[in-house]
Design brief:
Bound molecules: pyridoxal-5'-phosphate
Oligomer: single chain
Largest sheet: 7 strands, mixed
Strand order of the largest sheet: 1-7-6-5-4-2-3
Shape: globular
Helix content: 25-40%
Structural class: alpha/beta
Length: about 400
């Protein structure tokens, strides 16, 4: 059953307030373990830890409320919440591969997903192919008899490449291939990969769900069968399940997520119009400027979400990019996004200075996350920094 976003955020999982003194805000059940009154009860919980409170590396009541809400937002049967988006990527991939398998992934995936695919999977005898994910034909061309997983991220988080998720999922199902999609950019408010046929949807809860730059966490949503198996294997053995206090902070973040998410997108569009027209800007990338591909089924909603934009500077010397970034007064230079504050990260910081090629627009690009400040406040900070390099 599909609940409204409003119902999920305000009520779902909190029906039994009598269990916790009728408190409006759910309690942080800050306990590592749970007591039993009979040996038989203890025995039953050992038999299936997924069915009861035994130990907080497994299930915990505060985390349970969060899981119900996040699974419902994803329109998934179940979900697990872990200590980072990277852990969500790791667990979802590792749970679906075995020695000798082949994975197809898209270009431009998040750096730690790239690391897992190119550094960790080969150690386990698992090969991979990266493809341009913009059309299903490219996946067909990369198919091998031992392909078992397709790893997607739509849109990607620097140049915002999208993939036709529904078409890829339908094709993968014909070949018994599991599809995994990193949905951090859109969040389930903007795109629901599971409803499009994707098997496993993951996201970094560090971004929009937390929204306050104070928690690192990740979500894995899928069918009950996949999640239950992952719980007994990767979740319990890696032991990276989210702990009660962080789960509670995410519950708090969720209450205002739709408002923040809409506001950020509106402001980002205004800021992007200013950036697009600026004479110091050579190129702008953002989802709402990329014409979406209706024929291939790329979701319309993708173009109406997100607070990220990337622009390259019109400079003849890489030092000018650094001068621009160093001149910012309010926009903070930091990784991550999805919080209340505007953030910027220049591509040149991710490479040795001598490798920066000013003729390559990507090298002189900066990724801006537009936070909850007003557009005028953000634009005036950008303007004074542009003036310093003119
Ligand atoms: C931040 C991010 C991740 C990783 O999440 P963490 O919570 O930082 O581990 C994964 N994918 C995308 C697209 C991200 O932006």
């Amino acid at each position: 059953m599909a609940y409204s976003v409003h119902y999920i955020i305000n009520h779902l999982g909190e029906e039994n307030k009598g269990d916790y003194f009728r408190a409006v805000a759910p309690p942080i059940i800050q306990t590592s373990n749970f007591a039993f009154s009979t040996v038989q009860q203890l025995r039953e919980s050992f038999e299936n830890e997924y069915s009861t409170w035994l130990y907080s590396r497994g299930l915990n009541p505060t985390v349970e409320i969060l899981r119900k809400k996040l699974a419902a937002l994803d329109e998934a049967e179940d979900c697990l919440v872990v200590n980072s988006g990277a852990a969500a990527i790791y667990m979802s991939i590792l749970s679906q591969v075995k020695q000798g398998d082949h994975v197809i992934a898209v270009h431009g995936v998040y750096s730690w997903a790239h690391q897992i695919i190119t550094q960790i999977l080969p150690q386990l005898g698992i090969t991979h192919t990266f493809v341009d994910g913009s059309s299903v034909q490219n996946f067909m061309a990369a198919l091998q008899p031992n392909t078992t997983v397709v790893y997607l991220e739509s849109p990607t988080s620097w140049l915002y490449h999208t993939q036709p998720l529904a078409a890829i999922a339908a094709w993968a199902k014909q070949h018994q291939i599991i599809t995994i999609c990193d949905n951090s950019f859109c969040t389930p408010l903007g795109q629901k990969p599971i409803a499009l046929g994707i098997d496993i949807a993951i996201q970094s809860a560090t971004k929009f769900i937390s929204g306050h730059s104070d928690v690192v966490a990740g979500v894995i949503s899928s069918s009950k069968a996949i999640i239950e198996k992952m719980f007994h294997q990767q979740y319990m053995s890696i032991g990276s399940g989210i702990q009660p206090f962080n789960a509670w902070l995410l519950l708090r973040g969720l209450r205002t997520m739709p408002l923040r998410w809409q506001q950020v997108h509106q402001t980002a569009k205004v800021v992007s119009e200013y950036v697009a027209k600026h004479p110091m800007v050579r190129q702008l990338w953002c989802v709402w400027q990329t014409p979406f591909d209706a024929e291939n089924g790329v979701e319309v909603s993708t173009a109406s979400c997100g607070g990220l934009l990337t622009f390259s500077l019109q400079v003849s010397n890489a030092q000018r990019v650094e001068d621009f970034c160093n001149a910012l007064q309010h926009i903070q230079m930091a990784v991550s996004w999805g919080g209340y504050e505007s953030l910027l990260i220049p591509k040149c910081a991710t490479m040795p200075l001598h490798m920066v090629d000013v003729h390559n627009p990507e090298h002189t690009s900066c990724r801006l996350y537009v936070g909850l400040e007003t557009a005028e406040f953000i634009i005036s900070d950008l303007e004074q920094a542009f003036q310093k390099i003119q």
